């Protein structure tokens, strides 16, 4: 079963664009990781919300322990006010396919 993750990253004031640039430098490598079905960035002009979907928990675990995050994490650490708020979710499809039955 797939796994969905939300990570809310809180850059220091004035560091949002720099943090987005760090993600941009690594996003192709994340997309190439086994099991990565979605890794997308969103912002509200203050925080960065990363929406992820992995084919399995094992794929997410490999990502969490992988070399891409080993490089990305320290680069972001200097730009963050505090650690990211990370939530791991189990998809619960409901409703029509177009509006949510397929879930993320």
Q: What is the average per-residue confidence, as pLDDT, rounded to a whole number?
A: 93
For the terminal residues, how far apart are their CA atoms?
A: 12 Å
Envelope shape: globular
CATH class (first level) name: Alpha Beta
Overall radius of gyration: 14 Å
The helix content, as a percent range, equals 25-40%
Strand content: 25-35%
Number of strands: 4
Could you describe the 3D structure shown?
The chain has a 4-stranded antiparallel beta sheet. It has 104 residues and is an alpha+beta fold. The mean pLDDT is 93. It has helices spanning 16-31, 57-65, 67-77, 97-101; strands at 3-11, 36-43, 48-54, 80-89. It contains 4 helices and 4 strands, in the order βαββααβα. The chain is globular, with a radius of gyration of 14 Å. The longest helix has 16 residues, at 16-31. It has a single domain (3-92), classed as 2-Layer Sandwich (Alpha-Beta Plaits), CATH 3.30.70.
């Amino acid at each position: 079963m797939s796994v969905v993750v939300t990570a809310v990253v809180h850059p220091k004031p004035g560091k949002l664009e720099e943090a987005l640039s760090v993600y941009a430098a690594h996003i192709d490598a994340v997309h190439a990781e086994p099991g990565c079905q979605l890794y997308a960035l969103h912002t509200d002009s203050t925080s960065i919300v990363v929406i992820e979907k992995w084919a399995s928990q094992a794929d997410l675990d490999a990502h969490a322990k992988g070399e891409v995050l080993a490089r990305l994490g320290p680069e972001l650490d200097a730009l963050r006010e505090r650690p990211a708020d990370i939530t791991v979710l189990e998809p619960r499809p409901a409703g029509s396919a177009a509006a949510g039955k397929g879930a993320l």
